[in-house]
Amino acid sequence: MTALDIEHTDIMPTNIGVSQKDSIPSKGIAPPGRASAVTRVLTRKQKAAIIVRLLLAEGAVLALQDLPEGLQAELIRQMSDLRYIDRATLKSVIDEFVHEIEDIGLAFPGGIEGTLSILDGAISPSTAARMRKMAGVQLTGDPWATIAGLDPELLLNILKTESTEIAAVLLSKLKVSVAAELLGQLSGPRARKVAYAVSQTGAIAPDVVERIGRSLADQLGTQPPKAFDDGPVERVGAILNASPAATRDDVLDGLDQDDTIFATAVRKAIFTFADIPARIAPTDIPKVTRDVDQAVLVTALVAATGDLEPIAEFILGAISKRMSEQIREEMTERGDVKPKEGEAAMAAIVVQIRELEAAGEITLIADDDDE
């Protein structure tokens, strides 16, 4: 049972200002051997309080925090005013509630934010962002639950740029594992200041913490949607992976001159034919060669001369003896290979490796520099 179910019945109407004259008497059924019980006259708000009390007593988990604050406050007032309910009245309220629930065919969340949550993944991020901006959407429910589901990179930026006190509150509201990971990515002095500030958060009032959460959720929710799924390092790395070696080396040399840090990151993101022995386990090589056209494999191995010759031997040594002997015979028959043909064949093998990695069939060994 969710708060949405309760909110969309007459027992918990959206209009919490129902007057006493709208009260509907609950007609109970007297137990056998007793005279007809006189049931109490209850308002719909009182009936809602009874249902909530009953469900909580039965151990149900109710997402009451998703109700508007006005409804939550009214529910508290109604529950505090009630003392006891006789069995006949309780049964009548339950019957009415069940009847109204069964009559609901489909419930909509109400409001732009709730609708966008349902449509998440079905509409483009740009459309969702535009609708939020046009409607001036105010977040409902627990803002910290929204923040917890955001990209850690966004949260890291908040920890770096916001005041120490705000960063401390944010860190305190995240899961311990996430908070530890983000804290480890801060600079030493900043991490120490934020960690100390966490120790001072105990005296912050709950409503202040909620306002901070809503402000951060609103700020993070208005971030412009990303035009690209991958970051610039991954995109440049993927492009250079498929580029000829001469082009790749020339671009990397240029990047070294313009932005050494970016160039270093791109080099780590690049995977080339020469990286095979260091990044792929010998047991995974048969998976790679299995789906590569044998003529392409032979061409790549023939072209692997000089510094690349150990790579060819690594591949041949990782496949079955019979297959290795067969490929060596074909390499002898193949003769010389033009540089462009060799590079194209090596690139095809690299593409196959990347596809297997993306599919989860193989795992690349981490680069020593990344550990």
Automatic annotation (TrEMBL):
**From which domain of life does this come?**
Bacteria
The question of whether Membrane is a record keyword is answered with yes
InterPro entries given in the database record: Flg_Motor_Flig, Flg_Motor_Flig_C, FliG_a-hlx, FliG_M, FliG_N
Q: What is this protein called?
A: Flagellar motor switch protein FliG
Domain annotation Flagellar motor switch protein FliG N-terminal: ranges: 42-144
Q: What function does the entry list? A: FliG is one of three proteins (FliG, FliN, FliM) that forms the rotor-mounted switch complex (C ring), located at the base of the basal body. This complex interacts with the CheY and CheZ chemotaxis proteins, in addition to contacting components of the motor that determine the direction of flagellar rotation.
Keywords of the record, alphabetical order, are: Bacterial flagellum, Cell membrane, Cell projection, Chemotaxis, Cilium, Flagellar rotation, Flagellum, Membrane
The UniProt entry lists membrane topology as: Peripheral membrane protein
Localization (cell)? Bacterial flagellum basal body; Cell membrane
GO biological process terms held by the UniProt record: bacterial-type flagellum-dependent cell motility; chemotaxis
**In which broad location class does this protein mainly occur, judging by the first location in its UniProt entry?**
other
| Gene3D superfamilies from the UniProt entry | 1.10.220.30
> Which GO molecular function annotations are given, in alphabetical order?
cytoskeletal motor activity
Q: Locate the Flagellar motor switch protein FliG middle domain: which residues?
A: 152-223
